[in-house]
């Protein structure tokens, strides 16, 4: 039987929002660059393409939550769109652009694939 | 289809080329025609249908069946609301009572009553001309620019719907990635017609009931349970899991948007089915050598830890 005390562990991969897609002097905030933990090359990065990404943050005011009740946690959903570079970084697009304050902060990369995305992980 | 057939039937020689065309749809769908036809004709056709086994007639056969020019054809045309009566030869013509909106025409000695395109209705008002023509068959209110337009859903899932990940096979232990049961390891039973996966805890082990889950929410592990002997009852399908519609009475008092979320209680049927299936699965687990570990495995939660990276992990 499942012990009541222990809940599920972390089910998402940890990632960091490193910055926006950019050239040297121009940046394009609609696409975010994520560095996923443990992801060191293109092949590793390929695993995450299509997976959902979440930016979780806290706010002062409580807002209602889908599961019921109210919470100070807020969320921005997005998905990993493609690989970025050769070292395992990844590009992601969110429902609305990530705020700049999120840079350096945690992004969660879910194991679920975005339903409307072409690549289903082959397994 | 019906409309084109009727005029062709009466005008024998004139529409000889058209008739075979008109007859052909009749030949192909004799039964459908019976439904679409007007009452009297329907009976006639239905009789035929009942009498003999209906074989689609070839064009040639139909042509042969047509009576020669000289004889009076059996009149099959009927205007819509008015029933046609064949006049006796002695009866003076033009004395049949007509309903409103109908007129009569003659084809030789035969009288045909047809419905007028319009009816003249009296209207009031001094300057309105006393009468108006009202169309009996009104023009459609809308003419589509494009007929039979196919609407392509723009937000269509691109993934191949029928494809289930090859790693998910009946008996595979899967990890549920999100939802109420996230982190639990469940046994995949089968894929339902809707495309969703039927999984179960088993309930006794980890409190996950028989449930439908999208394959997106599952990570298949390499662990496979042998469920070849497990019989999944046939009544457990998509309808079984359908959520009941909350019928709201119109006379409900209070706020429509008032919080009326009823807590979900499993029906007796569900509990029975769950127990039955669980028993089967547990016997299947007990046959394994590593059953103790297996029970523990299913009962525990999955979670990523330090240095555990999903892209490297073999589940």
TrEMBL record, chain A:
Cellular component terms (Gene Ontology): ribonucleoprotein complex; ribosome
Pfam families registered for this protein in UniProt: Ribosomal_L35Ae
Matching InterPro entries: Ribosomal_eL33 (IPR001780), Ribosomal_eL33_CS (IPR018266), Ribosomal_eL33_sf (IPR038661), Transl_B-barrel_sf (IPR009000)
Gene3D superfamilies the record matches: translation elongation factor selb, chain A, domain 4 (2.40.10.190)
Transmembrane segments: none
Keywords of the record: Ribonucleoprotein, Ribosomal protein
Molecular function (Gene Ontology), one example: structural constituent of ribosome
Domain of life per record: Eukaryota
GO biological process: translation
Protein family: Belongs to the eukaryotic ribosomal protein eL33 family.
This protein's name: Large ribosomal subunit protein eL33
From TrEMBL, chain B:
GO cellular component terms, A-Z: cytosolic large ribosomal subunit
GO molecular function: RNA binding; structural constituent of ribosome
Protein's UniProt name: Large ribosomal subunit protein eL6
Ribonucleoprotein found in the keyword field: yes
SUPFAM superfamilies in the record: Translation proteins SH3-like domain (SSF50104)
GO BP annotations listed: cytoplasmic translation; ribosomal large subunit assembly
Oligomeric and partner information: Component of the large ribosomal subunit. May bind IPO9 with low affinity.
